Amino acid sequence: MIPADSPDPLALHLQEVRRGTVVLACLTACREPQYGYSLLDTLAQAGVQVEANTLYPLLRRLDKQGLLTAEWNTDEPRPRKYYTLTDAGARIADDLRTEWLALTASLTALWKDI
Amino acid sequence: MRTLTDRYVHAVVRRVPDAMRPEVTADVTAMIADMTEARMADARMTEARHDEIAAATEADVEAAVEIAVLEELGDPAVLAREYSDSPQHLIGPQYFPVYTWLLTWVLPVALVAALVSNGLSYTLSTADAHIGGLLGTAIGKSIPAVFIAFAAVTILFAIIERATPMGTQAGTDNAAEQVGEKLRPVAARRPRWTVDSLKEVPPGGTSVRADAILSLVFLVLLALVPFVPTTAVYVGHLNDGETFINPDLGLFWLIGYWVLLAVTAVGAVLRIRRRRLSTGLVALDMITDLVMAVFLTIALLTQDVLHPAIEALTSLPVELWAIPLIWAITIWDQVSTVRGYRTHLAAHGRS
Question: Per its UniProt record, what PANTHER family does this chain match (chain A) (predicted)?
Answer without folding.
Answer: PADR-FAMILY TRANSCRIPTIONAL REGULATOR, TRANSCRIPTIONAL REGULATOR RV3488
